[in-house]
Amino acid sequence: MVNVFLCDDDDKALDKYRNLLQEIAEKHHESTFFSMFRSGEELLFYLSESPNSCDILYLDILLKTINGIDVAKRLRAHGCKAEIIFLTTSEDYVYDAFDISPIQYLLKDSTSMERHEQIFLRALSMVKKKETEMFLYEACGILQMIPLRDIAFFEISKRIITIHYNSKEIKQFYGTLEMLEEQLINRDFVRVHRSYLLQLSYITKFEKQCILLKTGDYIPIGITYQKEVKRNFFQYISKTNMYYSGSFGR
């Protein structure tokens, strides 16, 4: 069951998108449950105790009291990993949400049924992928697993690799970053330093000699890695339809 949340202060819009998405889900035999919210405050309160009870979030940007961009930023800060799709009447806000990593911005009243179907199916696919992909490692002779989506970065020191996941949790095992790079090829991880390998979706800001992650961690960028990091990052944002208006360090 995929939990789909809709947040809009217009009751007609809520009904419209719920009916539209239900039709798409039924067409493709997808099991979904819809929850509707009429304000950003209501949504934030509901998710305050269980930020990951939402799998897909359709969020209106122009909410009355607090706009959808700010709502999404607060949700991300509390660990919400939902696939976010913004609903808007204007493209003016697309550059304000770089660190939120939305799937797409959909213009109200001008997006075709085919486009809605394409985006919703992509979101469903990403949810399923996140649920099934696990990182396997061995520690103390025991094979252990962590959901790949929860891992922000790996750090190595004297052959001890530390996994940083779920914001501030860590696990350790023996290995090499070269081994990890090979294991995580095509999984949106990139080597940024001889001691660090990070997940591209966690990047929120580039500075001259480091990267700020959504976890609040600053990760150094090695000089020899900068070109490859830049190439991988822009391939990633192109693939995920993200927007980036900043520069790659200053």
What is the assigned CATH homologous superfamily of the largest domain?
Response regulator
Mean pLDDT: 87
Quick one: CATH class of the largest domain?
Alpha Beta
Distance between the termini: 45 Å
User: What is the number of helical segments per DSSP (H or I, 4+ residues)?
Assistant: 6
Can you write the helix and strand succession as a string? Answer: EHEHEHEEHEEEEEHEEEEEH
Total beta-strand segments: 15
* Alpha-carbon Rg, integer: 19 Å
Can you list the strand order of the major beta sheet?
Answer: 2-1-3-4-5
Query: Can you tell me the overall shape?
Result: elongated
Architecture of the largest domain, CATH level 2?
3-Layer(aba) Sandwich
Q: What is the domain tally?
A: 2
Stretches where pLDDT is under 50 for at least 5 consecutive residues are: 243-247
Describe this structure as you would to a colleague.
- The protein has 250 residues and is an alpha/beta fold.
- 30% of the residues lie in helices and 31% in strands.
- The strands form 4 sheets. Strands 2-1-3-4-5 form a 5-stranded parallel sheet. Strands 10-9-8-12-11 form a 5-stranded antiparallel sheet. The chain has a 3-stranded antiparallel sheet with strand order 13-14-15, with no helix packed on it.
- It is elongated.
- GO terms for molecular function: DNA binding; phosphorelay response regulator activity.
